[in-house]
Automatic annotation (TrEMBL):
InterPro entries the record matches: PAP2/HPO, PAP2/HPO_sf
Location of the Phosphatidic acid phosphatase type 2/haloperoxidase domain: 108-220, 347-459
Keyword NAD on entry: no
Organism the protein comes from: Actinoplanes sandaracinus
Residues passing through the membrane, by range: 24-48, 82-101, 108-129, 149-171, 178-199, 205-223, 269-287, 323-341, 348-368, 388-407, 414-432, 444-462
Organism ancestry: Bacteria, Bacillati, Actinomycetota, Actinomycetes, Micromonosporales
Cited Pfam families: PAP2
Origin: domain of life: Bacteria
Gene3D superfamilies: Phosphatidic acid phosphatase type 2/haloperoxidase
Keywords for the protein's UniProt record, in alphabetical order: Membrane, Transmembrane, Transmembrane helix
PANTHER family assigned: AT30094P, SPHINGOSINE-1-PHOSPHATE PHOSPHOHYDROLASE
Keyword NAD: no
Protein name as it appears in the record: Phosphatase PAP2 family protein
Length: 491
């Protein structure tokens, strides 16, 4: 063989051969998974007795274990929620937005197509098989629809599996086994909870896992074919779907130390927390002993305006400041902030803000122990005392922290939406809480003091906007390069 032929073999045919070998192996694996699912489906459809006996035995045993404790049931339901549509649909949507921000449209399309396929297959197969859900001795949960396959098992396998395939390049090599293992643990835990809660048989869960694994295998293979047709290499999946996307998907590759001298900063934050708590306790103690007459008068005056429509509107406004709403907004903002500005410091600032607010509120409320207003309380008995208002403080801290972060990094006029929200949202929550008889006006004052003092402490210790200009300029330069525009100075 001539040297030229060897070069052709080395540079031309070798990649094709490697791709063909991997394709055949992948096809065999997918075929084996599909056949296993098909056999299981037939056994379920034709009521194979040994499988039915095993399903009932496992379902009854886990039901007896779970039904003995309300705490166990609550934990199982919480874990199960990680495989529900209420968690996975927002998660996939958020990750698609992050990928589009980082200018990775192909993985974003992969997430959308693979997720949509799972959404279609789940109800279709359930309707086709028509298997009824388990009947257990002590029901602790219920679920609509038929039983086979488990939608939670199918969805969790697909969603967390494709997240691993897409984001694996962003994970350092030594952490990749842990990343994959964490996803596997979540998928296994979700499947276990569905059987333990008595809403699925063991074969339902295995069927969902097999179907989900087959589906992400097929879509991953189709993605690799797409890459090859576009002229990109097709390395093994051990490096993820797009190994070259690693630098774009890493959260903050160019950031140095997030907090220089972390132990000194931790001490400063702790000292600041103690001083803020002392101020809140002093003000709360004074208000509790003073008992200003206008506090109850304002609550009773607002009570005269109550109507069913205003009651419902105030309930909605109050919900904007509860723990779930605050947590959801935080979990949406933090990944978007990382994708846009590729800095951990603003995320750390927001996390410290909300953790500090929660601990300060709980400790101050327990120490002051102020009674709720004497007016009718529409939300019933609450587990904490009245001063300061946790709903108002959490809303103020959240939107004030977001406004501080955004205003330093965005130059467009729409950035003023966030300072407006930092005023409008807490005011709406405060009005609803007083209207519903849950807080005095001076509890609102306590929330203002908590927010102002705690954010001031974090402003001088964490310094959330350090290097904000650098991050904004880097993001703009990356956008100019990706769009093929000539580099222009960022103002």
């Amino acid at each position: 063989m001539t040297e030229d032929n060897r070069v052709v073999e080395r540079t031309g045919w070798a990649p094709v051969r490697h791709f063909a070998e991997r394709s055949v192996l992948g096809l065999l694996v997918v075929t084996a998974i599909g056949l296993t699912f098909g056999v299981l489906l037939l056994l379920v459809r034709f009521h194979w007795q040994p499988l039915l006996d095993l399903d009932r035995s496992v379902a009854d045993g886990l039901n007896r274990w779970a039904s003995g404790s309300d705490a166990v049931v609550a934990v199982l339901q919480q874990i199960s929620s990680f495989g529900g549509r209420g968690t996975m649909l927002p998660l996939v949507t958020l990750l698609v937005v992050v990928l589009l921000i980082r200018r990775r449209p192909r993985p974003a399309i992969y997430l959308l197509v693979t997720g949509a396929g799972a959404l279609i297959m789940d109800p279709s197969l359930k309707a086709l098989i028509g298997r009824l859900r388990p009947v257990v001795e002590a029901p602790v949960a219920d679920a609509p629809g038929n039983s086979f396959p488990s939608g939670h098992a199918l969805g969790s396998m697909v969603v967390y599996g494709m997240i691993v395939l897409v984001f694996l390049p962003a994970v350092r090599r030594r952490w990749r086994p842990w990343f994959i293992g964490l996803a596997a643990v979540v998928v296994a835990a979700v499947g276990f909870t569905r059987v333990a809660l008595g809403v699925h048989y063991l074969s339902d869960v295995f069927g969902g896992w097999l179907l989900g694994l087959a589906w992400i295998s097929v879509t991953a293979y189709a993605f690799r074919i797409w890459r090859r047709e576009a002229g990109h290499p097709t390395p093994p999946l051990t490096g993820g779907l797009e190994p070259e996307s690693g630098p774009d998907l890493r959260p903050a590759p160019a950031e140095g130390a997030v907090l220089p001298h972390p132990w000194a900063k931790a001490a400063e934050i702790l000292v600041g927390w103690v001083f803020v708590f002392g101020m809140l306790y002093l003000v709360g103690y004074t208000v509790n002993r003073w008992e200003p007459a206008f506090d109850d008068r304002v609550v009773r005056w607002l009570q005269t305006f109550r109507t069913p429509s205003l009651d419902h509107l105030s309930w909605l406004a109050s919900k904007a400041g509860d723990t779930h709403a605050i947590l959801i907004i935080s979990l949406i903002f933090c990944p978007l902030a990382l994708a846009l500005w590729r800095q951990w410091r603003p995320v750390l600032f927001l996390a410290f803000t909300m953790i500090g607010e929660l601990t300060l509120f709980l400790c101050a409320a327990a120490a002051v122990d102020r009674p709720r207003p004497s007016a009718e309380q529409l939300d019933g008995q609450m587990p904490t005392s009245s001063f300061p208002s946790g709903h108002i403080a959490a809303t103020m801290c959240l939107w004030a922290a977001i406004a501080i972060i955004v205003m330093a990094r965005v130059r467009q006029p729409w950035r003023w939406i966030f300072p407006a929200l930092a005023v409008i949202m807490p005011f709406g929550v405060a009005l609803s809480r007083v209207y519903r008889g849950m807080h005095h006006p001076t509890d609102f004052l306590g929330a203002i003091l908590l927010t102002a003092a705690w954010i001031s402490v974090l402003w001088f210790t964490v310094r959330p906007n350090a290097h904000a200009e650098t991050a904004a300029e880097a993001a703009e330069e990356a956008a100019q390069i990706a769009d093929g525009r000539p580099l222009e100075p960022v103002r």
